[in-house]
From TrEMBL:
CDD domains membership: PBP2_TMBP_like (cd13585)
Family: Belongs to the bacterial solute-binding protein 1 family.
Top-level taxon of the source organism: Bacteria
Keywords: Signal, Transport
Name of the molecule in the record: ABC transporter substrate-binding protein
InterPro entries cross-referenced by the UniProt entry: Bact_solute-bd_prot1, SBP
Signal peptide residues on this chain, from the entry's feature table: 1-21
Length: 476
């Protein structure tokens, strides 16, 4: 696992820019840098998390009450996001002297409320939002480049290289600027009935029917073969009714295609915001999706989050691609597969990535204090303050801690999946991500309902992508 990370890290560091944690001066900040000699290093009443005693909750010695009298307002979505920030804010306030106010808005209203404030009200100093939103704010000049603050006041323990490389690149970087720190990682995972894959009788039956050994599929070819075997329509001896499932309702179905697109070497858009899917990779991903439909539930197109998860937890499905949140369902009291599920990377090795990042607004009243809060909640110890609020770690070193790995059997697969993920669930195109999502959903639904051929769907998607991207002046 460490070898894999080293290879990814080399690729990241070979980019045309280098993120430095020392030297330089921040020209954008209205605050003078604080001298460490001017305050006493803070001692924080640090909690234990999963048996880990947190020892670095004073910003590596850079916090000592020097921001007393300063107030930071952070905006995000109501629920776990807000609760996680509030929990960390208690310790940051103790260390820094600053006051942190977390303003949150219900899902569905949060994007509109935060966008309005960034454009007009300018009350928020920081925002915690999905990656696509953060990058739209960056394109509009509404959030700041964090590099000048890193150069001037960063904790000696910041260690940017410790972030999972794919997250720092996909979440934090936009047009060669570090506009955010990764906060909540997310990736599609592969859930499978481990008890069935390890059953000697089922292994023997698979060998007899296919001539191959039954293994957890990593290639698309093995994925399809295994899905067919575990589908009673094609194998009456299958212990499960369906070999495969996922969410295929509108707003979710594009994931089925996206999980294969990068595996075949494709992308949604390239670095110039040009569509990059109307090719052999996009077509093969469509054809694989139609093949998977044969092994999925008959009501597949009606399956949303709750319905799809319940079907898997009831033991009707052998393999499923889903977000990590499925774990709480399969480990619930009503689950028939509790303790029987294994976890891996989606077959093909290029799962779709989601995720949230935290950024500083252009209008931050106290930018130094705001930067220190962003750094604090995403630090090695600081990010563990969010783990009880369904916010998984974003740093490699935290997945190396035995206490973290032992807290969830899903974590090794999550780490590998986050490392391998290449495509964001929301196309990384400022301003129009929601519209592009709708275009993909309409096309995927039409293919699944056999209203459009895969090639016709790709042509239609490309045409509509170009239209929307050009409308906001982004396509070159």
């Amino acid at each position: 696992m460490k070898k894999k990370f080293n290879l990814i890290l080399v690729g990241l560091l070979s980019l045309s820019f280098v993120l430095s944690a020392c030297g330089g001066k921040n020209e954008s900040s209205s605050e003078p840098a604080e001298s460490l000699a001017e305050f006493k290093e803070a001692t924080v009443n640090a909690p234990d998390v999963l048996g880990i005693k947190l020892t670095d909750l004073n910003g590596g010695g850079t916090l000592g009450g020097q921001y007393a009298g300063q107030k930071i307002v952070v905006a995000t979505r109501t629920g776990d996001f807000a609760d996680a920030l509030k929990n960390a804010a208690k310790y940051f306030e103790e260390a820094s002297g600053a006051t942190v106010e977390v303003q949150s808005f219900p899902a569905g209203n949060d994007i509109e409320k935060i966008q309005l404030d960034l454009n007009t009200g300018q009350q928020f100093d920081a925002v915690l939002m999905p990656v696509a939103n953060i990058h739209s704010y960056a394109e509009g000049g509404l959030v700041q480049d964090l590099q000048p603050y890193i150069n001037r006041i960063a904790s000696p323990n910041l260690d940017l290289e410790d972030f999972i490389p794919s997250l720092l690149k996909s979440y934090g970087l936009f047009q060669n600027r570090l506009v955010a720190f990764p906060y909540k990682p997310d990736s599609q995972l592969f859930f499978y009935r481990q008890d069935l894959f390890e059953d000697p009788e089922i292994q023997q039956l698979y060998k007899e029917k296919t001539g191959k050994d039954l293994v957890v599929p990593t290639t698309v070819e093995d994925f399809l073969s295994t899905a067919e075997f575990f589908t009673q329509k094609y194998n009456p001896d299958s212990p499960t009714k369906y070999g495969y499932s996922s969410m295929a309702s509108k707003t979710n179905s594009r994931l089925i295609w996206q999980n294969r697109l990068a595996a075949y070497g494709g992308k949604d858009v390239d670095e110039n915001f040009e569509p990059a899917f109307n090719n052999e990779a996009g077509l093969k991903a469509m054809e694989t999706m139609l093949e998977l439909k044969k092994y999925a539930p008959s009501e597949w197109l009606q399956l949303g989050w709750d319905e799809a998860n319940t079907l898997f937890a009831n033991g009707d499905v052998a393999m499923m691609e889903q977000w990590p949140g499925l774990y709480s369902t399969i480990e619930g009291e009503q689950s028939k597969v509790k303790g029987k599920v294994g976890f891996g990377v989606t077959p093909g090795g290029a799962p779709t990535m989601g995720g949230w990042a935290i950024a500083m607004t252009k209008s931050a009243k106290y930018p130094d204090a705001t930067y220190k809060f962003l750094e604090y909640v995403t630090s090695k110890d600081g990010e563990l303050l969010k783990i009880d609020y369904t916010m998984d770690p974003t740093r490699t070193s935290n997945y190396d801690r035995p206490e973290i790995l032992n807290s969830s059997p899903m974590y090794p697969a999550l780490l590998d999946s986050l490392s391998a993920a290449q495509i964001l669930v929301d196309p990384d195109v400022p301003y129009v991500s929601p519209k592009l999502n709708d275009i993909m959903e309409n096309a995927i639904q039409a293919v699944l309902r056999e209203e459009l051929s895969p090639q016709d769907a790709l042509d239609e998607m490309e045409e509509n992508f170009i239209k929307e991207i050009k409308a906001v002046g982004l396509s070159l």
